[in-house]
Amino acid sequence: MLRTIAPLCALLICSVAEAQVPAAPETKSVPREALNTRASPLNQSCGSMAGKQNAKSGFYWVTLDDEHQVLMYCNNDTTFDNLKGGWTLVWSNLRGGRGKLVSDLHWGASIETLPRYRGAMITQASQDLQSFEVFTGLRWWRRIIDAGKRREMAYVWAHNYGDLNQVDRQAGCQFDLVPTDGWMITFKQASCKGIAGTTELPELFTNQGGNRWSTIDQDNDKYPGSCASLYGGGAPWWYHSCWSGSISGGGELADGGQSNGAYWKGMASKWGEADGTGAGNGWLYIR
Ligand SMILES: [Ca+2]
Questions:
Q1: Mean pLDDT of all residues in 178-194
Q2: How far does residue 222's CA lie from ligand 1's centre (Å)?
Q3: Do residues 118 and 133 make contact, with C-beta atoms less than 8 angstroms apart?
Q4: Most exposed of 33, 102, 130, 251 (fewest Cβ within 10 Å)?
Q5: How confident is the model at residue 36 (pLDDT cuts 50, 70, 90)?
Q6: Would you say residue 18 lies in a domain?
């Protein structure tokens, strides 16, 4: 009898532990007709639209696998390495605000979660990238880049709210994720280049390659304390020591709030400026 109970208990413990992970805002079920999306779902990512002249940017239903069909934002405007579009938006952060999607996110959820959204796209057919935020678990990043086979990332950054056609900076780079080594991120430095606005690469590309993923419950950074617990509002990141150039910055309560935004470089305690310093708005795309 014990032999049959033991694995069951193990399972129960496992599910209780998972249930204790603080709940973050989840993607709500949205009727398809409520959103400006196209009829047929995309297979695995936005990547199938890469290079297609008439493909539009916006929300599409994506069949990530047999069990998961989700809404994802596809960027079909950004060109990198002579290929236009096919980018899936996996993470974005707008400056300011409280209760971010990634705040105090635990390891398990940071890997497994389907795209979580916060903002206007939940209730209206918004195509405005400054009206919502999204975070997608790294497991799905892996799936998207395995499907696309490009293994490229684009980081888009704007220092202030405004016209999306006037984003300050865009850069791209070939990258990879290593699930078996703490979800380490690596960048192929020779491939990294500015796409628009600047030739100055983001610190994500220049300084965070080779860093493992850290969360508030799994410290893989190079700092004596836990960067994820101290900064970023408990946000996960490929921390070194600690958050210079992070998409979550210093977090919700740090430095009077002015570090609460996406960083292109550095950790200056101020709102974003056109020279790439300070807390702005950031979008990470992969394909
Ligand atoms: Ca540490």
A1: 98
A2: 5
A3: yes
A4: 33
A5: very low
A6: no
Cβ-based neighbours of 278, under 8 Å, separated by 6 or more: 159, 258, 261, 263, 268, 270, 271, 272
Domain annotation covers residue 5: no
Q: How far is the CA of 239 from the centre of ligand 1 (A)?
A: 9
Task: Give residue 184 CA to ligand 1 midpoint distance, Å.
Answer: 15
pLDDT at 4: 35
The CA distance from 202 to 194, in Å, is 9
CATH at residue 174: 3.90.215.10
53 DSSP assignment: T
Give the residue-averaged pLDDT of 53-77: 91
Tally of domains in the chain = 1
Report the separation in Å between the CA atom of 228 and the middle of ligand 1, taken as the mean of its atom positions: 9
Using the mean position of ligand 1's atoms as its centre, give its distance from the Cα of residue 242 in Å. Answer: 9
For residue 197, how far is its CA from the centre of ligand 1 (angstroms)? Answer: 35
- DSSP string for residues in 152-214: EEEEEEESSSS-GGG-SEEEEEEEEEEGGGTTEEEE-GGG-EEEES-SPPPHHHHH-TTPPPB
Residues by chain with Cβ below 5 Å of ion ligand 1: 219, 221, 223
Q: Mean pLDDT over residues 140-145, rounded? A: 97
Mean pLDDT of the chain: 85
Residue 169 within any structural domain of the chain: yes
Cα 261 to middle of ligand 1, angstroms: 22
- Predicted local confidence at residue 66, as pLDDT: 87
Asked if 260 and 233 touch (Cβ cutoff 8 Å), the reply is: yes
pTM: 0.85
Q: What is the pLDDT of residues 258-278, one digit of tens each?
A: 899 999 999 999 999 999 999
Instruction: Quote the ligand 1 centre to 86 CA distance (angstroms).
Output: 36
Rounded to the nearest angstrom, the distance between the alpha carbon of 218 and the centre of ligand 1 is 9
Q: Which domain holds residue 73?
A: 28-286
Categorize the per-residue pLDDT at 165 as very low, low, confident or very high, splitting at 50, 70 and 90. low
Query: Is residue 202 assigned to a domain?
Result: yes
